[in-house]
Amino acid sequence: MAIELGARAAIDDINRAGGVLGGRPLQLVTTDNKGVTARGKDNYAELAQMKDMVAVLGGKYSPISVEVLPEAHRLKVPLISVWGSADGITDHPYRPSYTFRVSLKDDWGVEAMMRRMANTYKASQVCAFLPNTSWGRSADAVIKSKATRYKLNFGVVRWYNWGDTTFAEDYRRCLDNQGQALMFVGNEKEATILLKEMAALPADKRLPVVAHWGTVGGLLHEMVGPALGQVSFDVIQTFSFMQNQRPRAKALAQWIHTHSPYKTVSAIPSPVGAAHAYDTVHLLALAVERARSTQGSRVRDALEKLPPFSGAVRDYKPAFTATRHDALDASQVLFVRVGPDGTLTPTP
Fold first, then answer.
1. Of 110, 257, 265, 309, which has the maximum CB count within 10 A?
2. What is the pLDDT of residues 66-99, one digit of tens each?
3. Peptide bond preceding 340: is omega within 30 degrees of 0, i.e. cis?
């Protein structure tokens, strides 16, 4: 929903300004992989073979984008991740690379999570709960390479599988290991289990949690209920509509207010998905104009040679180069708290 809102807002901007390639309108084709890798691969192949398809946007499930890599390089239609963070989406041996990202990257995102544990919570003995997927392995690689910079000792690292129904035993292990903070990588379903189990403990047994953004990719506040306010739960983000004075951020918010049920900036769900998709579609339109073509290989080449662009998230100077297919960096990082109504409020 968030990705679609952002993409449609940008398409509306572009088409009202005359479209691309001398007046051709941009169109959005939407599929839903429901978090299933095989379906995601099939969806990419189906989309990439459509006439005049210039790119496919990847959603929040990093493992699906990673698994699509062979298809993207076989079919030669750019895959642009607008919500996935696993390093492997853009760090891979395929050349020329057909993957790009306008999203957080674990290399600096997970590092920022460690920095928060060390600086905000003065933690040195910490724990991590990671999914047994390419996303979890991406986070683990960053932990192993950078934890010593922040004097963090990860005494307990729990690898869990989608569908696991409890974290209680591993959380007790974390406490027994003198853990002072917990890094959590996962989605809203797993976060709900963890937060409810933590909230049932005495207050002095509830460690601060620094969480990856998959936890707020749905309706966490409705799933967790009152337990949400009983645990210190900081979630990494790259964008917020709150107090945002960037002209395109304000324009995007206004478009969403007009074209959706979300009438305030605090009500807009998953703002990173909307903002990343919005900027991505604008960058794609610039690439199509530069390529003078809808051919995937020419659009790919043009993405590496874009002019500067002032987006909702940041100023891109430029978004990509031949050696850098990531448009964001650590300067976009912020942390939010989740309110009882789902509001994501930036916190220092």
1. 110
2. 999 999 999 999 999 999 999 999 999 999 999 9
3. no
| SS3 label, residue 328 | coil
Distance CA 330, CA 13 (A): 28
What's the distance, Cα to Cα, between the start and end of the chain in Å?
Answer: 28
Q: Cα–Cα distance between 134 and 320 in angstroms, integer?
A: 24
* Assigned token pair, 235: 């979630």
User: Which two three-digit tokens encode residue 281?
Assistant: 């579609």
Q: List pLDDT tens digits, range 45-75.
A: 999 999 999 999 999 889 999 999 999 999 9
- The pLDDT confidence band at residue 35, using thresholds 50, 70 and 90, is confident
Q: Which of 222, 223, 237, 228 is nearest to 209 (CA)?
A: 228
Stated pTM of the model: 0.96
Output the domain CATH number for residue 309.
Answer: 3.40.50.2300
Q: What DSSP element (H or E) covers 346?
A: strand 344-347
Question: Does residue 67 contact residue 84 with C-beta atoms inside 8 Å?
Answer: no
Evaluate whether residue 97 is within a structural domain: yes
Region of residue 52 (phi > 0: left; psi between -120 and 50: alpha; otherwise: beta): left
Nearest to 138 by CA among 67, 65, 86: 86
Per-residue pLDDT reduced to its tens digit, 121-178: 999 999 999 999 999 999 999 999 999 999 999 999 999 999 999 999 999 999 999 9
Q: Is the dihedral of CA 230, 234, 239, 242 positive or negative?
A: positive
Regarding whether 98 and 126 lie in a shared domain, the answer is: no
Find the domain containing 184 and state its range: 107-237
Same-domain pairing of 10 and 93: yes
Contact call for residues 41 and 65 (beta carbons, < 8 A): no
